[in-house]
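Homework-ish question, so no full write-ups if that breaks the rules, but can someone show me the predicted structure for this set?
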Amino acid sequence: MMTAPPLTPDMPIQPQQKTVSTLSPWREAWRVFRGNKAAMLGLVSLILIMLVMVVGPAWYAVDPFGIVATPFHEPFVDSRYWLGSDYLGRDIVAGMLIGGRATLLVGVSSAAITVVIGISVGALAGYFGGWIDVSLSRLTELFQVLPALLFAMVLVTLFQPSLGVVICAIGMVSWTGTARLTRAEFIRLRGLEYVNAARTMGAGHWRLIWREILPNAMAPLIVSATLVVGVAILFEAGLSFLGLSDPNVMSWGMMIGANRRHILECWWAVTLPGAAIFLTVLSVSLVGDGLNDALNPKMHLR
Amino acid sequence: MVAVLAINFTLIHAAPGDPASVIAGEMGGGDQAVIDSIKKAYGLDKPLPEQFITYLGKSVRGDLGMSYTYNKPVSSLIAERIGPTILLVLTALLVAIVVGTLLGVFASLKPKSFSSAVVTIFSLTGLAMPVFWTGILLVILFGKVWPVMPIAGMYDVRNYGATGWAAALDVLHHLVLPALTLTLVYLAQYSRLARASMLEVLSSDYVRTAKAKGLHQGVVVFKHALRNALMPLVTIAGLQFGNLVSGAVLVETVFSWPGLGTLALDAILGRDYPTLLGVLTFSSLFVITANLLTDLSYHWIDPRLRGK
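A: Not a homework solution, just the prediction itself:
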């Protein structure tokens, strides 16, 4: 009978014969995502929209606030203003090209704020439990009870309507969902063995929260962050439609709001920016859905 | 609740812009004496905590103060405007829940089929459309292309003074477009949610048992599966009904619907703080009540929760 030689630390472990090429989880997710036609369509159109926002205004240098044509200029008849003009005679093309900047900027930044507040609150509540959890959960409930759009409207009006305030207002009213999701994930993960192992090895709270638990809670959080971007874009559009956003920054919502009283005379001035918002949000949610399928393997069948 | 009130109150009073000088300005300009007398009349000369205690005490008794712009009690303004908002939101929610559930169930039965994909595309589209834009498209459609529907307001001035059925029909006629706009948004959410929820329930063991017993498919789907699949729908419906003012403000603005949303917007634009604070407080109260009712309804839907 043969006994196995004792393992010593310097002895190299024989590598197993590889039969299946393994991919890292992120590569695997990208493979699934790439195979999802709708998600790829969303990604491509989102990249295109961003490119247009970055390059467009430089190439088409017309002031979106400048009155360059006669009011109610029909689209597709004059090559100088091929999307027509609005009720003041402002060029629609210029507005369309630059209007998405504010929308996208506000959408992405307020989603970032939402995610930062939501993850911090949710992680602390879920990790520590006890009175910290109770008080943070009460705080979350408090913000959940505030009527979101109304509260944001008030915030924006009270502190000068600038882009920064709009971003903060949207961030402040929409973090509760992320916080709850993070808390639930942390409660699920904090009792797992690998976390106990890390704790036994002397990892502190900070390391456990950010390095051990959070990376494993990332998948649902990334999906929810993408969806938050879509919601934030609609939120911004709504605020600027009501005339409660920065009056010096042209945005798609503002174009619709400004021309609202004249929709029967110039349908194009409201329809086109709305279509742009719609297309952007649709692309974002297609990407979000694709990420959901790619990062949550259990959901593949749906 | 008190905390919510405190947040609203502090926030509004922390704002730059002094309401007394706004009122004085509207009355035709004002020297300091006029502003002071206005401050005294509305209790604005007292320190903030004292103002808050007074406000709290009064609002418990249902007195939300006087509106600066309408010069009417805020509570009666809210009472006037809440009816149209509830009518609008409730109509939209009920239609959306019924149709959305049916669409979701239909899509969940054959998750890979073409018709299921249509439901999915429909809900994605509905979720991505800004609600005010949908409203405006409907206004263009029914105001210009095919003018059969009224596109603004709640009553027709030509029917002024009408009562009974004529008035009710008039309101209903005006309700169609705003309610349809709101329904489309809700419908997108419900059909998507109902589909996901049904798919989960349909793959569970007890549904397989029911099928294996040889029960008719309709009975299995509607009696066994749907009941459990309804839970998330009820949660969302409760949240949305509670949040009705926020949900309706954009639609109300597009269609000039005389509800709480337009009242809030006017209050914001006119710096009418008591009205604004009143609407905020009232809406928060509404959310809390709706959440409570939602929790209670779980017990009605899911017998397992009873007795806990």
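Now go work out the reasoning yourself. Hint: The mean pLDDT of chain B is 74.
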